[in-house]
Write a structure and sequence with these properties.
Length: 348
């Protein structure tokens, strides 16, 4: 340490060199201003503060001892790197804290159903297990077995764990449409106009309605600047309402009602997120599948816990899906097997 101090103190610094070093210190002043503002979130006031302080430090050090001005300039440069490194750590900590606060606020406002959280966890575990299996098979020189395993898992999942939407459309294809005055107990399909009883308020647009479905997507950008949107939240909530046709009306307990509706009533983009809300409103014409039971002598339709089916869709959208569903299934099946053949050729 003494050797370093002796080295700097023994240096001769002329006035022209001093002026040059003071001008050079303006460069460190620029970096100091950017670091404090960008990494620490501290707005320097006045903006020229470091552009005055840094040259003054060099000048005052020169008055103490000419060689000390060189030491002062060296320390100013060192401080740029030190402040930059600590600033990156500090800004990362602040960003993490801010992200956690935003996530907590987000989850408080848009509550994710527990069932969806569990499903997401199982999905991630399954993907990780599949990737691990792929690496292990590759190390054994038997990666081609994935061509058998992956399709088998997809088929087994479709047979034994069909999605609620798949169940809904399968039942819709076989269930007869019941009239309100002749609803049998058990799983039923009804169509009619909606009557509001207990309105609910949508979480983002604060719209009163019979029920709502909300979808939130988040924007991300890859290294090439391409923007993609991914869903980060979806949920629905429905109050108690009635559905009527020309023969009468029945009450519906909307808890757990799934929405198979393409219509979007309101949407907005805010920051890096966009929000979509769909509403069930008074006089909407709806197709509904659920469990009919008797409550105090009146028919009540609610979720079938055993079948796991309780869904709503607009009849005209269902008609379009039924018309094009066979063509879509054939196309996807053909595409699936062509993809398997291509992958097999590439691996082999």
């Amino acid at each position: 340490m003494k050797e370093i101090l002796y080295f700097f103190s023994s240096q001769e610094v002329s006035i022209p060199l001093l002026v040059f070093m003071m001008m050079f210190s303006e460069g460190t002043a620029l970096f100091h201003t950017l670091i404090f503002d960008g990494l620490y979130g501290i707005t320097v006031r006045p903006k020229y503060l470091f552009f005055v302080i840094n040259p003054m430090i060099v000048l005052l050090a020169w008055f103490v001892r000419p060689g000390a001005s060189l030491l002062a300039l060296t320390l100013l440069f060192a401080s740029v790197f030190l402040l930059g490194m600590t600033g990156m750590i500090f800004s990362g900590f602040l960003k993490g804290k801010k992200d956690r606060a935003e996530r907590k606020e987000f989850e408080a406002k848009y509550q994710t159903p527990e069932k969806e959280k569990i499903r997401n966890i199982f999905f991630l575990v399954g993907i990780c297990a599949l990737i691990g299996l792929g690496f292990w098979l590759n190390s054994q020189g038997r990666l081609s077995l994935m061509l058998l395993i992956v399709p088998s898992l997809i088929v087994l999942d479709a047979i034994f764990l069909p999605a609620a939407k798949t169940k809904f459309y399968k039942l819709q294809a076989v269930l007869p449409t019941s009239k309100m005055n002749a609803v049998a107990m058990g799983l039923v399909e009804v169509t009619g106009d909606l009557i509001q009883i207990e309105p609910v308020i949508s979480p983002h647009f604060n719209t009163p309605c019979i029920g709502y479905a909300i979808r939130i997507e988040e924007r991300s950008k890859d290294k090439d600047g391409k923007i993609t949107w991914s869903r980060i939240h979806s949920s629905s909530k429905t109050g108690t309402f009635r559905i009527k046709d020309e023969t009468g009306k029945v009450t519906v307990n909307g808890e757990g009602l799934e929405y198979y509706i393409d219509r979007v009533d309101k949407e907005i983009e805010s920051g890096d997120k966009r929000y979509f809300e769909t509403y069930l409103q008074e006089d909407d014409y709806l197709l509904l599948i659920g469990k009919a039971s008797s409550l105090n002598g009146e028919t009540l339709i609610e979720k079938d816990v055993h079948q796991g089916v309780f869904g709503a869709a607009f009849p005209h959208e269902v008609a379009i899906k039924n018309k094009f569903a066979p063509l879509l299934k054939s196309f996807l099946a053909t595409l699936f097997f062509i993809t398997l053949i291509i992958i097999y050729i590439l691996i082999a």
